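Journal club prep — side note

Before the paper discussion, L.F. wants everyone to see what a predicted structure for a comparable chain looks like in token form. Sequence:
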Amino acid sequence: MHDQPRRPAANTGQSHRHLGARGQTGIIDGTEIRVRRPAAGHKDRDRFISGKNKQNAVKTMVLTNQNGRMLFSSPARPGSCADITHARESGLVKLLADGPAVEILADAGYQGLGAQTGGRVMTPPHRKFKKNAPGWYEEMHERRRKAHSSRRIRVEHGITHLKNWRALARHLGRREHISDTVQAVAGLLSHQQTAVLNPPRQR
């Protein structure tokens, strides 16, 4: 898979405006899709080894609303790409910083984006005490961490629905085409979820 040109953030922008117009919270997360290992001798072979799962994969960044409805899936990047780097390269930071004020929930992999987006990206709370933390602090920190995690769980549901499609359970085709496949499936899934949430009125 060669580095693909950065695509316009039109779909991301539409999703962002959708959240802002409806006063909804967005949730972002990265997910990995297993792909075939590049041939021996390929100069970028190691870039596809995921740092998290130690498998050959590409990574896509998913954005859902607070109910888990799929709004956007980014072009894929090699599995070794960090979540925060992926967000920056996708144009998300600039989009959020310059756009309407919305709340975006993210996990610890996106820590640092809050300061770059005017507080729009919210990540799990930092620990003030590395060692010998008072009991009251441990209890408060754990309570806040669980509260943040429970609000983010809907994006995991969205990712599960996305990867229920066989084409994304494990991609056996050419890596150059995976971005188009992911975004096409995400679009179909979003349409399907909208139809379920807003069934046509019977006359």
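L.F.'s comment for the group: The chain has one domain: 10-197. Keep this in mind when we get to the figures.
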